[in-house]
Amino acid sequence: MPALVQFACDDTAYLVDPLAVECTPAFQALLIGPAVKLLHASSEDLDVFQRWAGVLPTPLIDTQVAQGFLGDNPGMGYQKLVEHWTQEVLPKEETRSNWLERPLSPAQCDYAALDVIYLLKVWAQQKAQLESLGRLGWVEQECQAVVDQAHTENAGQWFTRQRLLWRLTPRQIEAYRLMTLWREAETRRRNLPRNWLVGDKLLFAIADAMPKNRYELAAVEGVKPVLVKKEGDALLALVKQAYETAPEALPLAWPDPARPPSNRSSRHLRKRWLPRQTYWAWHQRC
User: Fold this and answer.
1) Statement to judge: residues 188 and 74 lie in one domain
2) 3-state DSSP assignment of residue 192
3) CA within 13 Å, CB half, 4
4) Does the pLDDT value for residue 39 go beyond 90?
5) Which of 62, 51, 60 has its CA nearest to residue 18?
6) b vs e for 67-103, b when ≥16 Cβ sit within 10 Å of the residue's Cβ?
7) How far apart are CA 102 and CA 274, in angstroms?
8) In this predicted structure, what is the pLDDT of residue 103?
9) pLDDT tens profile 119-156
10) How far apart are CA 173 and CA 203, in angstroms?
11) pTM of the shown model
């Protein structure tokens, strides 16, 4: 269950308390209507929408995906993205506040409203640059693929939501895949949100580093001692499993989004790049 639903149109922001009201047919219609919906780093948001609203927002633009096609840092966080495009700094004080607490404070409400208002400002500039580069269609196609994937995805495909997989080797991709599978099982068993256990960004950093012991795991940027203490053995065992996976069983290299395949060959190439165990989900959307 989400703690807060925020959306904006022009310069007006709306805050909906999902703890007090259920998703209405009118809001479902808004989510699937013809207007473009903007999200940043949409993977977990799509999961929430599917559970709470029963529908996925479409047509969708993910500003993180768009940033990747602009050739800049595709993993840029939202606050840095806003500063990059608007030269304004969003407040950070409420980032980790308790959003389940009621009533929300005025500072929380202001933070939540600015969060979505600036999304519109960022996309306006991204869109203009994408159009000048002839890449807007690429972004639209990729974002639709994200939505299609969310429709059919199960825990085994979660790792494919990571937009930076192209930076990893096949063995690193396998480590990331194994860690996301482990996290899905653990969050369900413990009834925790994914990021409360360990977030995608941190799992990606661990897969990139491929640590062989606790000392190397602790040296990974963002890894805190409590994670090493509580989950270190499990994470290291999964990395070890990836090290020991036979080369022919590894996923193939992932495509660089800044160099997308041509429309004619995109279906064939997506099949080649996709690990065998996840092909069925992509096959349905291709």
Assistant:
1) no
2) coil
3) 22
4) yes
5) 51
6) bbbeeeebbbebeebbbebeeeebeeebeeeeeeeee
7) 44
8) 92
9) 999 999 999 999 999 999 999 998 988 888 776 655 55
10) 11
11) 0.58
Copy the structure tokens of residue 186.
């653990």
Q: What is the pLDDT of residues 44-56, one digit of tens each?
A: 788 788 778 878 8
pLDDT band at 278 (very low <50, low <70, confident <90, very high): very low
243: left (phi over 0), alpha (psi -120 to 50) or beta: alpha
Tens-place pLDDT, residues 87-129: 999 888 887 788 888 999 999 999 999 989 999 999 999 999 9
Residue type, 222: G
* Separation of CA 280 from chain center: 21
Domain co-membership, 238 together with 166: yes
Written as six digits, the tokens of 16 are 């909906």
Residue 121: both structure tokens together? 């400002």
Q: Tell me what the pLDDT averaged over the chain comes to.
A: 83
What is the count of structural domains for the chain? Answer: 2
Query: What amino acid is encoded at 88 in this protein?
Result: E
Is the confidence at residue 213, as pLDDT, over 90?
Answer: yes
Residues across the chain:
286
Q: Is residue 102 in some structural domain?
A: yes
Q: Residue 39: what are its φ and ψ, rounded to 5°?
A: -135, 160
Task: Give the tokens for residue 179.
Answer: 């860690």
Place of tokens 């990747």: 68
Q: Residue 72 in contact with residue 153, Cβ under 8 Å?
A: no
Q: What is the CATH number of the domain that holds 118?
A: 3.30.420.10
